[in-house]
Write the structure tokens for this entry.
Amino acid sequence: MTEYENYFIPVYKRIEKRITGSEGSYLITEDGKYLDMFGGLGVNSLGYNVSNVNNAIKAQLEKFSHLSNYFEAEPVGKLAEYIVNNTFAEKVFFTNSGTEAIEAGMKLIRKYGKANRKSTIVTFSHAFHGRTLAAASVTAPDNSSPYNFPGGVPNVMTLKFNDTGDLDKINGDTAGVFVEFIQGQGGVNVADSEFARKLRERTAMFKAVLMADEIQSGMGRTGRLFSFEHFGIVPDIAVTAKAIGGGLPLGVLMAGREHCDILGYGEHGSTFGGNPVSCAAGLETIKIINRPEFLKSVEEKGKILLSEILRLKEKYRGKIGRVSGMGLMIGAEILKDHEKIIPLFLERKIFVNITHRNILRLLPPLVIGKKEIEFFLKEFDSILSDL
């Protein structure tokens, strides 16, 4: 048990290490530096103590830390402008988190559906969109995820992820579709190209709103700014969060031209959404990530990491199952003694994460060096040999 555990509602299973500092791809504890291979669950894409981001935060703090959304704050406007100029979005809405961005998207889709006499909302098996009531309602209501919360938003239909035949159930009654083109919490499941193509085709045919969840897979994680770019897909709306705030709370709903004015004055809002300090950090972060050379480096390092894990799969047959991912978002199914993986990595001063019971999910800082990747692989090899 951690030092202050008795004071918290017990919803987190914490790692019993006291973090005293951070640097690059490492977290510093009382017993040394640990390589962070899940990067704050995808938040710390640029690693820790990033000088450019820290300077942007300090500069904004000297002006004001909060401003009511009745006023227009410059860093908020500049980040909105950057996103619109560099994505499909025509307009954006800022939130504090990914699940709040999902809630905003849900509200938009339901209003659109009501106006067009469409009632069904589609999600997919093993999906994860958040833990608030509406977000949890589209988090695998078929019970394929332990995080679902059935009984929230009505008229939710779950289709099988990567089953192109199941997409025929999208019809004229479908108001919108929530999809992760790379499912994170559900096991790092990558969409098939044909599945993605048909999904876009069916939603366009029946004028259903296609909403891409890029909360974990966005902001350069896959070697593109957003994962849907790998599939040649342009969604109607999309959400991202986690990495976009540069370590501070920030989420964003992005809406294309046909859907950017569905929500009107007073129909939605957020007291802290689009906090000026978070947006100042976010603007600096997205400018760094969205450089072609940066995205190319993520793609290259991801290929090295993925290919070497596949090599370990061949070397240790029966210990690693399915391996999947894009860029620096990779999952490896641990077939034997998966409950030992986190403690064994801790002994080697590496933080890792297990999701979906036995999937080793890797979300390292995008700035991770090749030597650090080699260190991780060497220790993973050692662990597998001992299992």
Observations:
- The CA atoms of residues 75 and 280 lie 5 Å apart.
